[in-house]
Each structure stands twice: as C-alpha cells, then as structure tokens.
Design brief:
The structure is a homodimer. Chain A folds into 2 domains: about 70 residues, Multidrug-efflux Transporter Regulator, Chain: A, Domain 2 (Orthogonal Bundle), CATH 1.10.1660.10; about 50 residues. Helices cover about 60% and strands about 5% of the residues of chain A. Chain A is built from 5 helices and 2 strands, in the order H-H-E-E-H-H-H. Chain A has a two-stranded antiparallel ribbon with strand order 1-2. At the A-B interface, helix 3 and helix 5 of A face helix 5 of B. The first copy, chain A, binds a DNA duplex through helix 2.
Chain lengths: ~140, ~140
DNA sequence: ACACATCTTGACGCTTACGTCAATTATTTG
DNA sequence: CAAATAATTGACGTAAGCGTCAAGATGTGT
C-alpha cells in the first residue's frame, strides 16, 4: 500500500483510510454495505480506495458527527454521483438538497442559541466562582 | 387536567406534554429513567409536571435534534440544578460547560461549511436545470 | 357509583451503527 | 518460499433510544 509515488497517493487500502481518518475498518465496510461507497477491488478482492473515496468517507464522518443518519448521508451523496444525464432525477435532487439546506440552517440557528446560553451560563459561573475565591465557609487560610 | 387557571397552566400530565411537545409518553418516561427529569407525583402516583419540567423537556428535545446523546444532555442539565452551595462541583461544571461550548462551536463551523457546499451545489443544479427547461426528450407541451 | 379514559410499571421488540470473533484467502517481507 | 501481516465474508453481540403490548391502578364525567 502506498507506492510512495511522487506527490499524492492515488490508492489506499482499507487500513490506510482507517488509520488516517480514525474510522474502524468495520465502519468503513458497513458504510459500503449501505451503498455509501463502491471501491474497486484488487485481483485478490481487496478493497482499493481512491482519493474520491477518501473524500466521501470524510463527508460521511462529518455528517455523522453532525447528527445525520447514514441514510440521510447516503441520499445526499447519491446526489453527487447520479449521471448528469438523468434529468428525471434532477428536480428530485434539487428538492432534496433544499430540504437538507433548510435542516442545516435550522440546526445552525439552534446551535447558535445554545452557544449563547452556554456562554452566558459560563460567564455567570466563572464570575461567581471568582467571587468565592477564598470562601467564607473554610477558614483555612491558604498562604498569601 | 389543566384547571383552566387564570393565565398560564402550572401543572401538566404526561400526555399534556406529550401532545404539546410532540414527544411520546414512552420517550418522556425514558428520559426520567435516565435521570433527566424528576416530576412530582399525585397521591395516586401519576406524574405531575411543572413549567420547569416542560422547559427541561424542550432542552432535551433540542439537544437530541442537534445530535447530542441523552447522557451529554443529562450532564448539562445537571449543571443547572446542582445546589449553588456545592462549591466543589463548581470548577467541574465550568470545565464541562467549556467543553460543550467548544463542541457546539465546532459543530457550528462544520455545519456552516456544509451549508455553503449545499448552497453551491443547489445553485449549480438549479442553473443546469433551468438550461434544460424544455428538455429535448419530452415534446409533450403542457399548456401555457 | 359506574363506565371509560389515563396512567403506571414491567418486559420484550426493533432499528441504527457499529464491535467482536472466526475461518479463509491475499499480500508482504525476511 | 515460508512466516508474519492484512483483508474478506459471515455471524452474532451490544448500546442507545425508543415502540409496543400487557395487566392493573387511578382519574374524570355524569
């Protein structure tokens, strides 16, 4: 694996990607079983990933981290590899993308609100904490 | 349930909240079993929720939608109801809040990136679509 | 007080997203 | 080329987050 080619690698083994991305090989194979990936195989049937596959894996990873299901991620990814001549699917794809976009924007708003609340709570807690510096309950004087 | 008191209700049954928030009663009870709620009980052991409980449920709901686990949500919620005199827990709480804040900010960034990608993909798709306006495959004229 | 709607606690079921062997086959390396 | 290392499929296991009965206690309207 990894013919130290000039510049960037072109093909990766499953463990290459596993190590690089911090995903288990099981997870990667599972994603494939759900149709999120379709790597080539060597003559010996070992999976061979391209940079595109790696990019897809990164997207899957991000999607998961952001709370999307593998099914949702699959739907989105499929939009990117439908044959552009499949006009019938076009409108449907646009529709789906709009829906996801709406969801994403909604989540951004919600997360922003949560951020504000957390930040406020944190500031408040920190202030109270600093005021309790040498608290009145413990008469133990720590030096200085 | 709901003694049409003047102004706002003060107590809710589990199905009140279930209906109002769109959560199953099973889910609500499950949250309680994990310690996320602690409603009072009637003499007959039926759960009685306050407005605060409702607020907590809303937070749980938001947290779930944003991809947090019930355990993470529980940790955060517990920060809000520790007795403020529990100074020992203070530092820990501040630490935890900081961590969550970091996570939230990270997710906001990731989601923003995703938003941009989706928006770009959508614009691109829409343009191509509009150029295929009356596509050469279908000679069916819809009136007007 | 009666009937009917609600609620309560189990307990088992199900889906998602993998973890963890196990038995084989490929590939790599000394 | 033999031994060690890595990959493959299959099958079973698991944790989270509820859904879905079931059987009985409680609440409500008349």
């Amino acid at each position: 694996m990894a013919h130290h080619d000039r510049g960037e690698r072109v093909a990766f083994s499953i463990s290459d990607l596993s190590t690089e991305l911090g995903l288990s090989t099981r997870a990667i194979r599972y994603y494939e079983s759900l149709g999120l990936l379709n790597p080539d195989r060597t003559t010996g049937n070992h999976r061979l990933y391209t940079r595109k596959d790696r990019a897809r894996l990164r997207m899957i990873q991000r999607g998961r981290m952001l709370g999307f299901t593998l099914q949702e991620i699959a739907d989105l990814l499929h939009l990117y590899d439908v044959d552009p001549s499949e006009r019938v699917q076009y409108a449907r794809g646009i529709e789906l993308t709009r829906k996801h976009l709406t969801t994403v924007r909604h989540r951004i708003r919600e997360l922003s609100l949560l951020e504000q609340e957390l930040a406020r709570a944190l500031a408040e807690a920190e202030e109270k904490f600093s005021q309790l510096d040498h608290d009145p309950m413990s008469d133990q004087r720590v030096e200085k």
